[in-house]
Amino acid sequence: MNSIAKLIDYTLLKATAISEDVEGMCREALDYKFASICIQPVFVELCARLLAGSEVGVTTVIGFPFGATKPETKAFEATQAVSDGATEVDMVMNIGEMLSGNLDVVQKDIETVVKAVAGRAVVKVIIETAFLSPEQIAAASKIVKASGADFVKTSTGYGPGGAKIEDIRIIREAVGPDFGIKASGGISSYQTAKEMMAAGATRFGASAAIKIVQEEKASLG
Questions:
Q1: Cα 44 from Cα 89, distance rounded (Å)
Q2: How many C-beta atoms surround the C-beta of residue 135 within 10 A?
Q3: What is the pLDDT of residues 49-93, one digit of tens each?
Q4: From the CA atom positions of the chain, what is the Rg in Å?
Q5: The total number of structural domains that make up the chain
């Protein structure tokens, strides 16, 4: 049985993070064999160097945390991140345009980033579920899939709430059985992660990644 570690993006997105924190995190990511580390763009080069030759990916964030920069700016950020060594980019959807019902603008925003890194990085789109109604969550998820991205991601961790089981279920129904769903925000236990998986999550973003894996190990004896 594969450890849940393979499904976790070990996350450090605090404004106060320093390079020593990130270096320690990379060592831990290698020890626990997480899917990736998720850090701010300024740390991508450092992480890419420290994780070179391993199976641990380098994830960074784009248009973070509000999604309110222009598509061209997000595309530049993503291109730079990939040049620096990022293997996955987690971009924030244009939340204001989604709330305004301008779905074509939302889709173009995502497509611009997808095109910028096509074939070079996995694209996850943060829809910030806590700001959206169930209907808007479903609509946003369908847009993400139609835009050519690889994952719908629930939350930045900076909004009014994180991942919820019912939101994961809505997303799964909207995107079908085979599309990626990253649950993030407030996932701090193995039990919660298991419940998210049962609802349809295929990846997790967690700063409590080590605790989750240790709880998994304890539960399996």
A1: 11
A2: 9
A3: 999 999 999 999 999 999 999 999 999 999 999 999 999 999 999
A4: 16
A5: 1
Angle of helix 103-116 versus helix 71-84 axis, rounded to 10: 20
Cα 161 from Cα 158, distance rounded (Å)? 8
Q: Enumerate the active-site residues.
A: 90, 153, 182
Q: Copy the structure tokens of residue 173.
A: 């129904």
Range of the domain at 26: 4-219
Residue 205 β-bridge partners: 9, 184
Rounded Cα distance between 157 and 92, Å, is 12
Q: What is the pLDDT at residue 2?
A: 81
Tokens describing residue 106: 């939302």
Residue 55 has, within 13 A of its CA and on its CB side, a CA count of 9
User: Which CATH number fits the domain that encloses residue 164?
Assistant: 3.20.20.70
| Neighbouring residues of 53: CB distance < 8 A, sequence distance ≥ 6 | none
pLDDT digits (tens, 9 = 90+) for 159-204: 999 999 999 999 999 999 999 999 999 999 999 999 999 999 999 9
